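Input (structure):
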């Protein structure tokens, strides 16, 4: 073992420098060797192979943000399981086991709560009562309801 404290981190530093050098080298080589033919089509924004439509600043459903926050929340809670698993057998014994069961129980209660609230159900749409969401839900022969569907839910 080296005498210097920082000498232990030299392999990590070399690996980080190698990874950064490799990444920079690939970008520089692709710039120097690659063909550069700009056209109107190439300069358009790319949206998963589809033609871009609408404004880039369109509004997203609140469900998108709720699911994103829930993912971060439950992901962060799962991270707490790793240190517990490492020191479980050495130090915590049965106390740590029961403590983690309580922790997982609290996490599961929160998960079932958001599940029952419908936050995780993407098929469910929120709309005002009595406003049809699709033309299939319109009563036959009702012209005002058909216009309501075409007008975004407002009676015309």
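Output (sequence):
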């Amino acid at each position: 073992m080296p005498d210097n404290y920082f000498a232990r981190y030299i392999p990590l530093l070399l690996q980080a420098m190698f990874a950064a050098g490799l990444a920079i080298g690939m970008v520089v080589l692709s710039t120097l060797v690659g063909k550069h033919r700009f056209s109107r089509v190439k300069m358009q924004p790319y949206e998963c192979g589809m033609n871009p439509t609408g404004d880039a600043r369109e509004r997203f459903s609140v469900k998108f943000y709720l699911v994103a926050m829930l993912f971060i929340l439950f992901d962060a809670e799962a991270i707490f399981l790793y240190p517990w698993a490492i020191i479980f057998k050495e130090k915590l014994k049965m106390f740590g086991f029961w403590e983690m069961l309580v922790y997982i129980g609290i996490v599961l209660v929160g998960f079932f709560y958001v599940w029952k609230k419908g936050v995780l159900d993407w098929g469910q749409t929120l709309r005002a009562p009595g406003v049809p969401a699709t033309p299939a839900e319109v009563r036959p022969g009702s012209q005002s309801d058909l216009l309501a569907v075409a007008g975004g839910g407002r009676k015309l």
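Notes: Residues 125-156 form one domain. Residues 137-156 have pLDDT under 50 and may be disordered.
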